[in-house]
Amino acid sequence: MHKRAMMSRDYTDLSDVEYDEELEKSSSEQETTKPPWKKSLPHVLVATIVSFLFGYHLGVVNEPLENISIDLGFNGNTLEEGLVVSTLLAGAFLGCLFSGWIADEVGRRRAFQLCALPMLVGASICATAKSLMGMLLGRFLVGTGLGVGPSVASLYVAEISPAHVRGTYGSFIQIATCFGLMGALVIGIPVKSILGWWRICFWVSAVPAAMLAILMMFCAESPPWLYKKGRIAEAESELERLLGSPHVAAAMIELSKTDSGDEINAVKLSDLLFGRHSRVVFIGSTLFALQQLSGINAVFYFSSTVFRRAGVSSNLANVFVGISNFIGSFVALALMDKLGRKILLLLSFFGMAIAMALQVIAAALFTSSNPISFYLSVGGMLLFVLLFAVGAGPVPSLLLPEIFPNRIRAKAVAFAMSVHWVFNFLVGLLFLRLLDQLGPATLYSMFCTFCLMAVGFVMRNVLETKGKTLQEIEIALLPQ
């Protein structure tokens, strides 16, 4: 270690001329050889276990909720049934508020392990619950872990990925979430026929949580975080693991342009809201707000009802929605590093507006004897989910760690993700009431309007980050 420290160059003392010369030299070398993607892939796959757990725990109570309410003695109480679902969101909001501080204090790897702990304990409490309070306690603990995990996963994947595949790796987060949702659906199938099967559904989730905690022991730590902490030699060592020896020097030169040392501890909420980087924080937070105001969760919540009106079973409806989500996610995987983040966001939000317009037309034409409205409802809903998974779903969680400067990245991502959880909760809480009071045509028109607002916001504010290093993006977004 001492030898490596002595051999490490003092990149922070490079003059501007030296920096430009060495960066030009390293850039010309990298034009012919890009960092190998296979070195960082295993570390990314381990990180996406968090996203799998995120999807699994969001969907794990959908099928078993009725059985849970019967066994625990609150069957027929819609408020208490709703609490079983929403307590997870409350815990996630709380965990998200602290995720930036945790990731900055203990590092990305340790943050993954810490978020796995409440998911393990919470899942065990849910699986053995004898009362509603036990179930709520377990769901809340699981939620705190989920609040920390996804934001850290977005950070980690962005910071360890080579620039030319960072978008592709970011799409893995959305795909893992889809696998989690589908996994929860499949695991829940026997719940109607096997007594107490819902307890098995919760026990199953403990397995990937334990795998995450164990496998993270063998993964690389984030080089930008190590550099920011002043651990230069360790940052070089991890870059060598992730990119290969020929690319370490260029990566270190770029890191030298970011903040390091104890300055990280000076980041406060006021710095995020009113400091020199407030504009990028506003962009990131607004993207997450518009993502939720587009109505995606409302569509998920209402999909079973729409399909039942069309004479299709709720199980088949869930399968169709899941397939649309999968197809969209794999399209995003193929196009993220080819078309770019901004183009996918624009296509996604504009297409979602069209899909919502189809829902408005279907609601206006709806009669019990008009099959056209049914086809428009079902087709519009599947198209909406498909296009959401192409851009509006995966891009914000990838784009935020890219556009936030190294010094504020963890805390800024945590702040923006907390905005996501707040709007997620509000949409889920108010959707059914607004549907009853305003009617589907008016409500879907509002969602369509928010999608169009998102198109205008993206065109005006979002910077294309495809193929750029995190340091290049940081410099481009610095206030003049």
Explain what the structure shows:
- There is one protein chain.
- This protein is an all-alpha fold and 480 residues long.
- The chain is 77% helix and 0% strand.
- The protein is built from 23 helices and no strands.
- The protein has helices at 2-7, 16-32, 41-47, 49-59, 65-72, 78-106, 108-127, 132-160, 166-187, 197-215, 223-228, 232-243, 248-255, 269-274, 278-293, 296-309, 314-335, 341-365, 371-392, 394-403, 409-438, 440-461, 470-477.
- Helix 6 (78-106) runs antiparallel to helix 7 (108-127).
- It is globular and about 65 Å long.
- The model is unreliable at 1-9, 12-20, 26-32 and 260-264 (pLDDT under 50).
The average pLDDT value, as a whole number, equals 83
Secondary structure category = mainly alpha
Shape: globular
Radius of gyration: 23 Å
Order of helices and strands: HHHHHHHHHHHHHHHHHHHHHHH
Can you give the helix content as a percent range? over 70%
Low-confidence parts lasting 5 or more residues at pLDDT below 50?
A: 1-9, 12-20, 26-32, 260-264
Q: What share of residues are in beta strands?
A: under 5%
DSSP strand tally:
0
Counting DSSP H or I runs of 4 or more residues, the number of helices is: 23
- N-to-C terminal Cα separation, in Å? 40 Å
Major sheet size, sense and barrel closure: none
